[in-house]
Amino acid sequence: MKIRNTQVKKQYNLFLTENPILRYINFSLLYMAQGAPEGITFYAIPAWLAINNKTPMEIASFLAVIGIPWSFKILIAPLMDRFTILSMGRKRPWVIFGQFGLIISFISIGFVPDPLNNLDGLMLAGFFISFFGAFQDVATDGMAVEVIPENEQARANGLMWGSKTIGVSATLVIGTALINSLGFSTAIPFMSVAFAFFILVPILFRERPGEKLMPWTKGKVSEYSKSVQLKSWIKIFKDLFKVIILPSSIFMAIGICFNGMLNGLVDTLLPIYTIQELGWSNTSYSEIYSITTLISGIFGMFAGGALVDFFGEKKMITIYFILTISLLAIIGMSSALWGYNQYIFGFILLATLLATFLSIAFFSSGMKLSYKTIAATQFTLYMAISNSGRAYGAGLVGILKESFSWEQIFLLIAIAPLISMIMIQFINFIKHKQSIQNFSHRSTV
Predict the structure, then answer these.
(1) Mean pLDDT estimate for the chain
(2) Contact between residue 196 and residue 203 where contact means Cβ atoms under 8 Å apart
(3) What is the rounded CA–CA span in Å between residue 191 and residue 285?
(4) Domain regions of the chain by residue span
(5) Residue 256 pLDDT greater than 50, yes or no
(6) Does the pLDDT at position 39 exceed 60?
(7) Cβ(385)–Cβ(253) under 8 Å?
């Protein structure tokens, strides 16, 4: 009876390392929380700017500026690996901090005076949303690498990224509707009230047994956290250097950079292309994009991780890139069909679906290549490189539009996934893991 009670207690506890269902719920909700502000800043606001006749250069500049904090996540990650309230967990205190900052900054963007004619103020407010979003993202990713077993990572990444796209979809369509009906300055603070719910997730769930729920509650540092916590900046950067100079890390960095550039190009292009070239309203664009991201999120949750589990990361990334290149070539050479809304809807749906599945496979690859001792720093380095590519891709749209036609731009964009696909072929997960085990063993001898 005692053994049975212990098993039941373990099954229903609220510790992430002990409860697989709780892990899936926790990280899915945290990623949905990341998607909510992105749905507004990266999609709803650009569409709103486009319908109000802002130029492609102005819209691209806004997206490039709000993408900057995501590029500097690598400066945040070592801070998290080095400092924390260890009795509350290695990354959980930082998740709470990032989530709280997101709520405050999300409210503040609604108080920008005359935002349509004050793009500098809008950019600044968007910058701070991205800044705290980057904090929450780094901490969540670091915690995921540490507490999710390797055999669950692909499935977890499917759920996480699927949840994020659902968060983007929901806030995009709701945010657009509220902006159009209530006005920008009223709609955004109104949405922040609902967004505040997500801070309960990191507050209620702990990483490991015995840890404190909050700084003033009972608890202590877990033995695992003691054993892996680094107390030296030199050690952090020395371990990071040893991992990132491994061949697979280098090829991963190049591949994920060009994939990020692809995302930045497409995400920035779509609202400008559909609204200013095809004559859609921002409501039509938001509804179509939200539907496609919702569908992609659902498929990602239930199929993205499963496909990676079954076929492997490299094979699936290659397939997704071949399909993406083909899709961009087809849309670029079929301008005669652009007047059919169903055709463009199909393009957006397939592009979003492939981007979601690629993100799941890349995230799973990044986790598999990460050294747990410096998990936040190494994984964040990959994500920072990806976001640098995304910010560059976003800024590139305005430059391309001044020199090329839309048909030519679609064909030029296909270069990014081609380069990324080539780089991924050189990754060797088994050899990389053996290298990590070798220098990890030497450091303990």
Answers:
(1) 83
(2) no
(3) 20
(4) 14-444
(5) yes
(6) yes
(7) yes
pLDDT for the residue numbered 156:
84
The CA-to-CA distance between both ends of the chain, in Å, stands at 43
Range among 67-71, 141-145, 242-246 with highest mean pLDDT value? 242-246
If you count DSSP H runs as helices and E runs as strands, how many of each does the chain have, helices first? 21, 0
Given the structure tokens 């002990």, which residue do they identify?
18
Give the separation between CA 203 and CA 40, rounded to whole angstroms.
Answer: 25
Nearest Cα residue to 19 out of 209, 158, 185, 184: 209
Torsion angle (degrees, nearest 10) of CA 334, 335, 341, 346: 30
Please name which of 95, 97, 96, 109 lies closest in space to residue 38, comparing C-alpha atoms.
109
CA distance 58 to 137: 27
pTM summary value: 0.73
Please report where in the chains the tokens 């099954």 appear, as a residue.
11
Lowest mean per-residue pLDDT among 286-290, 435-439, 441-445: 441-445
What is the Cα–Cα distance from 286 to 5, expressed in whole angstroms? Answer: 51
Length, in residues, of the chain: 445
What is the Cα–Cα distance from 23 to 7, expressed in whole angstroms?
Answer: 18
CB 128, CB 108: distance < 8 Å: yes
Q: Tokens at residue 104, please?
A: 């405050």
In CATH terms, 14-444 corresponds, of 3.90.79.10, 1.20.1250.20, 3.40.50.150, 3.40.50.720, to: 1.20.1250.20
Give the pLDDT confidence of 265-289 residue by residue, as tens digits: 998 888 888 988 888 887 788 778 7
Alpha carbon 255 to chain centroid distance? 16
Q: Please report, for residues 34, 207, 239, the alpha-carbon distance to residue 372 in angstroms, rounded to integers and kept in the order given.
A: 23, 15, 11
Query: For 101-137, how does the pLDDT look when each residue is reduced to its tens digit (9 = 90+)?
Result: 888 888 888 788 888 888 888 888 889 888 888 888 8
